[in-house]
Amino acid sequence: MNYIELDFILEPLMPARDVLVAELADAGFDSFVETDDGVKAYIPEENFTDDIMKDMMVMKMPELSISYVKSMIEDQNWNAEWEKSFDPIDVEGKCLIRAPFHDASASHLYEIIIEPKMSFGTGHHATTYLMIAEMMDMDLNGKTVLDMGCGTGVLAVMAEKQQASDIDAIDIDEWAFENTLENVERNHCHHIQTIKGGAEAIPSQKRYDVILANINRNILTRDMHVYVNAMNTSSHILFSGFFVTDRRDIETVATSLGLQFVHQRERGEWTLLHFRKEQ
């Protein structure tokens, strides 16, 4: 599969980059690489049209200078592109997320090896960082966990490293499904089941102690009731993938479904909301 790359230059850089990435994700772009002066965004060639940028809010912001160059990225060139741009990620000095071509670390409590390919979730994006940071403050020992919209599978791998006993990793994208399978094997995980699909793919009779949902706002609000139905009493659910300004929308749906707010984290313009199901 060939991908279209849009290489954006932004002035000012922040918060324009975060706004742009959110809009591009909603439009079907599934991979991003931050650059010094903007971001590179990737979308399957078959999903791209030249009109895709016209209705984006970020293109209409008068205070923002934005330009981009379009190019074709062939499937076989993707790994080389990542190797040039993917640096190890240190999450609060406790977890190192690195690619196979980086040196191992003996100083971190957790180490996760991710070959990102075309999938989202390397730790570079603020929301992945937020999810890992929140997970490290939780006891997952012996828990059943759902990683919904798993991307690279990084959160599912982290859950196993925290001794979760039964983990389902679900993503609708074929690239993400295959990438998760590879990363599960790469990290020697034995308790992760990888499933291709959306919310409908959640096993109907299964209930989870912890649900991890790092997905965009629209999908979260649309499918949240499905996630809640898959929770045990006193289960925890972590939401990210949206802006600080979207908190009210997420919280309104969550509380209407009986969820109780536990904790919030922020990183730049992005946020994480942690809820618990009380009954």
Write a structural description.
By secondary structure, this protein is of the alpha/beta class. The chain has two domains: 79 residues, 2-Layer Sandwich (Alpha-Beta Plaits); 152 residues, Vaccinia Virus protein VP39 (Rossmann fold, 3-Layer(aba) Sandwich). Helix content is 27%, strand content 34%. The strands form three sheets. A seven-stranded mixed sheet has the order 10-9-8-11-12-14-13, with helices on both faces. Strands 2-3-1-4 form a four-stranded antiparallel sheet, sandwiched between helices. A hairpin with a 2-residue loop joins strand 2 and strand 3. Helix 3 runs parallel beside helix 4 and helix 6 runs parallel beside helix 7. It is globular. The model has no long low-confidence stretch (mean pLDDT 87).
Features:
279 residues, alpha/beta, Alpha-Beta Plaits, Rossmann fold, 2 domains, seven-stranded mixed beta sheet, four-stranded antiparallel beta sheet, 27% helix, globular
Question: What would you say about this model in short?
Answer:
By secondary structure, the protein is α/β, with parallel strands linked by helices. The protein has helices at residues 16-26, 78-85, 126-136, 154-161, 174-186, 217-229, 247-256; strands at 3-11, 31-35, 38-44, 65-73, 89-91, 95-98, 110-113, 144-148, 166-171, 192-196, 208-214, 231-243, 259-267, 270-277.
Beta-strand percentage? Answer: 25-35%
Overall mean confidence score, pLDDT: 87
How many strand elements?
14
Number of domains: 2
How would you characterize the largest beta sheet? 7 strands, mixed
